[in-house]
Specification:
Elements lengths: L8 E2 L2 H8 L9 E2 H5 L3 H12 L9 H17 L6 H14 L5 H4 L2 H27 L6 H19 L1 H4 L4 H12 L21 H19 L3
Parallel strand pairs: 1-2
Length: about 220
């Protein structure tokens, strides 16, 4: 990542100081090591950005992935039983793999672009909802947790992502569907329990997948 003046994750404190001419990080900024080591600076930056509705501070999939991890840990410690945030973290982990070796060798750059656009669209649009949940004194359990997950999945598939799916060319869409269904080599990265069934361009099929197999899988995977 280039260390321009608008960067929020910095390679080092020295890079931050040389670029901004400030000695101390602003509340919305953090170092890469803060994120990877889950330091107090990273946690406080997440709280600050969440309370001030600043989703665009998180510019890369791995930053959003680790934000989701921090948030689900925080909410789980309060007793919440929602799973959507864990689902978002799980999908972010898979998306991040597209940018790394060896996947990057055979994944078309278009697919990586679509993955980044989808990640950003969901994250930015969900941020206000996540802020409300973070600030709420109500702990969501049982049916309330399921309903919240369903609401978020509906918005995700029918509103936040559907316009993106409509812009994807047919060849790329077929590749994305093969990936989701675990066909060919993609089966190595997609467990049988969560291989997509249906039409990936259909928001109803995507919603049913998210609230069914994917939620069930992540509920068990992130239990402990």
């Amino acid at each position: 990542m280039s260390n321009n003046i608008s960067a929020k994750e910095w390679k080092s404190l020295k890079a931050y100081q040389n670029t901004t001419h400030h000695k101390i990080l602003t509340p919305s900024d953090w170092l890469k090591t803060d994120r990877t080591h889950n330091t107090a600076i990273w946690q406080q930056a997440n709280i600050y950005n969440l309370l001030n509705n600043l989703p665009k501070e998180y510019r890369r999939i791995q930053e959003r992935r680790d934000f989701y991890e921090w948030l689900y840990d925080t909410l789980n410690s309060r007793g919440h039983e929602i799973v959507w945030i864990e689902m978002a973290h799980f999908i972010s982990k898979k998306m991040r793999l597209l940018e790394t070796f060896p996947c990057a060798l055979f994944i078309h750059k278009k697919i990586v672009v679509y993955a980044n656009e989808g990640s950003q669209a969901v994250f930015n649009n969900a941020f206000k909802e996540l802020k409300e949940l973070f600030n709420s004194k109500n702990v969501l359990k049982g049916d309330s947790a399921i309903q919240w997950d369903q609401k978020m999945s509906y918005k995700e598939q029918y509103i936040w992502l559907d316009s993106l799916y409509k812009t994807i060319d047919s060849k790329s869409l077929k590749t994305i569907e093969h990936m989701a269904k675990g066909k060919f080599l993609y089966g190595l990265a997609v467990p049988k329990a969560i291989r997509f069934k249906g039409d990936i361009s259909n928001p109803k099929d995507r919603y049913n997948y998210a609230t069914g197999p994917l939620r069930d899988y992540c509920k068990v995977l992130y239990k402990d």
